[in-house]
Amino acid sequence: MSEISKDKIEKGFAQLEQMLGSVRAQQIRSQWNQISTEFEQFVVGVLASELWTRSELDLRTRSLVTIAGLTALGRPRALALNIEMALNNGASRQEIRETILQMAFYAGFPAAWEGFQAADEIFRGLQGSGDAKQ
Length: 134
Hints:
134 residues, mainly alpha, globular, AhpD-like
């Protein structure tokens, strides 16, 4: 594996902190590192550092596009994380629901059902923590 520079890792982690908050970003990064150091470095040093910082799409739009793709692919773990990020990136719960509903016709109703389940779990968890974002 080629080395990813410390600067890219730092830039990517700063982006994750912006989208998740410091504590949650560190939790997720630790989980990735625990399963694979290389995976954690690619996600933080390339995906977060290079893709999520591009200016061609704002973070809200990038989050909604990602939610659509992960719903279509049936990837609930990544979907749940990206729903958390979308809320922090300015997407409303209704916009997230509408994005998932749109996927029902393109990716199938079972995929949308899984997406709605993931969203509902995140939304309920936030209600329990006192976060009232709608």
